[in-house]
Amino acid sequence: MAATTLNAVRSADVGALYNDHAHWLFGWLRGRLGGNNADAADLVQDTYVRLIDSGRYPPPGEGRAFLARIAGGLVIDLHRRRRLESAYLEALAARPAPAAPSEEERALVLDLLVRIDQVLDRLPGRVSQAFLLSRFEGLTYAAVAELLGVSQAAVRKYMLKATQACLLALDAP
Predict the structure, then answer these.
(1) Residues 20-30 pLDDT 10s
(2) Burial status of residue 82 (CB atoms within 10 A of its CB: 0-12, 13-18, 19 or more)
(3) How far apart are CA 81 and CA 73, in angstroms?
(4) What is the torsional sign of CA 47, 49, 54, 60?
(5) 65-74 pLDDT, tens per residue?
(6) Over the Cα atoms of the chain, what is R_g?
(7) Which domains does the chain have, with CATH numbers?
(8) What stretches of 33-62 show up as alpha helix (H) in DSSP?
(9) Which has the closest alpha carbon to 48: 28, 71, 64, 32?
(10) What's the rounded Cα separation, in Å, for the pair 52 and 7?
(11) Does the pTM of the predicted model rise above 0.70?
(12) Does residue 99 register a pLDDT over 70?
C-alpha cells in the first residue's frame, strides 16, 4: 500500500475512533478530574494527539481500553505537573519579592522540573531513589547505600546514570 493511501487509512481510523469514543472519553476523563470540563476537553485532544504521534492504533473492539490507557497516563502527567507547579510556587512565595523570577523564568523552570521528573520516572527504581535521596534529601552516598541495601559503589553508578539522564533532559528541546 502506498504511503499516501496508508496515511489516508490511518486518518480515517483516527476519525472513526474519535467519532465513536470522544464523547465517552470526555466523560471518563471528567470523572477522573473531579468534574473539570476544561481539563477533560484538553486531555481528550491530547489523547488523540498522542495516539497519532505514536502511530499505533487499537485492534478492532479495543478502542476504549486503548484510549483509556493513553488518557490515564495523561491524567497522571497532569497531576504530577500540578504538584510540581504547586511546590515550586510555594517555594517562590517564601522568597523575598525582589528575588522572585519573571513569568517567563517560572515557565522555563516548571518545564525543566517536569522534564527531569519524567526522566527520573523512566529510570530504574533504585537509580531514581538514589538520586532523589542524595540530591533532594541531602543524604550522603553512605546513607543512601544503607537505605537501599547496596554498596556505595552502586550508589555512585546510580548517581552517574541519573545525572547523565537529567543532563540529556536539559539538552532536549
Answers:
(1) 999 999 999 99
(2) exposed
(3) 12
(4) positive
(5) 999 999 998 8
(6) 21
(7) 1-100 (no CATH), 103-173 (1.10.10.10)
(8) 37-54
(9) 71
(10) 11
(11) no
(12) no
